[in-house]
Amino acid sequence: MKIILSRKGFDSANGGKPSAILPDGRLIPLPIPSKNDPARFDDVAINGVQIGQMVEELTAGKIQRGDRCHLDPDLDASADRRLGWRPNLGQIKSAQGHLANQKVGVNDLFLFFGWFRHVEQTPSGWKYVPGSPDLHVIFGWLRIGRIVRLGQGELPDPLEAFALHPHLHGRDHKSNTLYLASDRLDIDGVDACGGGLFPRISDALILTDRRQAKRTLWRLPLWMMPTEAREPMSYHASADRWSLHDDECTLQTVDKGQEFVLDCKNRPEAEAWVRNLFGLVGNRRINGGDCESGGVSDAMPRRCQTQTSLTSEVKVYRYVVKVDKGFSPNPYNKFCTLACCKPLIRKNARPGDWVIGFANSSRGNSRLIYAMQVGEVLSFDEYYKNNRFKGRIDNIYCEENGVLVQKQNDYHREKDYDRDVSGRNALIARDGFWWYFGNKAPDIISAIGNGDAATKDYRTEAIKRLLFKGQNCKVSGLLGNEIGILHGYLKKNWPNGGKIGEPFDVPIRPKCS
To answer: Which of 148, 262, 269, 460 is most deeply buried (CB count within 10 A of its CB)?
Structure first.
């Protein structure tokens, strides 16, 4: 299998702005303007959002909702489709020539990425969240099932299902090619359609190295780095572009080029990495339907319900951190982890969800102890055996002869066992995705209320909806723009995230709630 990292959507030359990450985490890849293509921005819905108004507001009117656009790749199975439609991509000229030279063919996997930033909906319309980072994010996939050489007279079947595709209009060139998705993704452990959109952002989908500001510098697993036995990613053969960092590497990507091809012949780790993109947790499978549309009348075509378990709403888990001793949460050594206490949260949270801890009433309930977006969910045994987390003070449970055993530690005892293990999992947020304040906890009502006077009341009311003063925890979907406003405040003031203060309480064995 070859993996093709394919750059698509708005960029600095076409559109001039980033695509959008909504406050609920949904990814909205914006198709580039194109004067002669059939679709108009106002005609297009992506991940449940009609994009015409959004495009007009984010570009300050430079692109109008009635302007035409190049909807390619076309991946969203939730839009109305004609019978026989399936996710697809068109390519032509130099980009197609590069794919042909790299011998890209059936069963190879496109992973589409683009330039994204967080957005928020204000009283004056959609705006980019101030201080939010520029990111390269993977937003979709397509496993090649058929290649239609349009420039050589071939046509997709049924033709009417693809009649509005831009590569069937005004592109008379012998290299003109249409890639159609396979029926299934066919990656072990992932039950998904052969093409589609990732509905919401997660740590695994972000290519950009969040430890710095350039979106073109990527943080990748070590197995992607070229060696004598492993061919380099196309366009990236120069050793100067690659740097080794412990069990990871970074890559300074080229400024131009659409298709970066990685041959996985000698990279057995590739399938596990792809599974992680889909948010696979332990042995949990991701469900999805077939890849062919069942008919134009279905809002979600009956046979194309892509990765249904991924389309659930981003959840926000909120609770009061009664005792803050650096154990739960644990904000040390690059990661913020929640591996003990709070079993309801650990049992149910998934990558992309948020966990927010507020101070107790004696310290002020509107003070923020920490906020993290879940990047990984590991079983206790996976957490214990992973070298990245070895020696962490909350890493105290592992399997012995099929039974979870509590290891000797300075924090929890036998009486804590049942509550801890009922949560099943450890939640991990990697650097750049968490903010721990501890004894420097800001009062977020007053801090965020001190912003732009024109939107002070709007922002303050949104943040008040996040507050929680109860005994256990509160879980809800996003009610409005709460997370977008909170995230914008955090990124503006602490752009790299991480550990900002020390635990409120002396870090000895805590009583956890």
So the answer is: 262
Out of 63-67, 209-213, 482-486, the most confident range is 63-67
- Rounded to whole angstroms, how far apart are CA atoms 136 and 115? 5
Q: Are 29 and 37 in contact (CB under 8 A)?
A: no
The answer on pLDDT for 476 being more than 70 is no
Cα gap 491→473, rounded to integer Å: 25
Cα 120 from Cα 451, distance rounded (Å): 15
Q: Quote the percentage of the chain above a pLDDT of 70.
A: 88
Q: How far apart are CA 150 and CA 176, in angstroms?
A: 5
**This model's pTM is above 0.70:** no
- Reading the block at residue 270, the tokens are 């590739």
Per-domain residue ranges for the chain?
A: 2-218+230-237+256-309, 315-499
Q: Which residues make Cβ contacts (< 8 Å) with residue 234, sequence separation at least 6?
A: 98, 102, 259, 260, 261, 262
Q: Is the dihedral of CA 449, 452, 456, 462 positive or negative?
A: negative
Which residues are within 8 A (CB) of 246 and not within 5 positions of it... i.e. 6 or more apart?
A: none
Label the pairing between strands 336-338 and 425-429.
antiparallel
Residue 290 binned pLDDT confidence (cut-offs 50, 70, 90): low
- The amino acid sitting at 392 is R
CB–CB of 352/373 below 8 Å? Answer: yes
End-to-end CA distance of the chain, in Å?
48
How does strand 45-46 pair with strand 19-21? unpaired
Which stretches of 373-481 are DSSP H helices? 380-385, 417-422, 444-449, 456-464
Q: What element of type H or E holds 169?
A: none
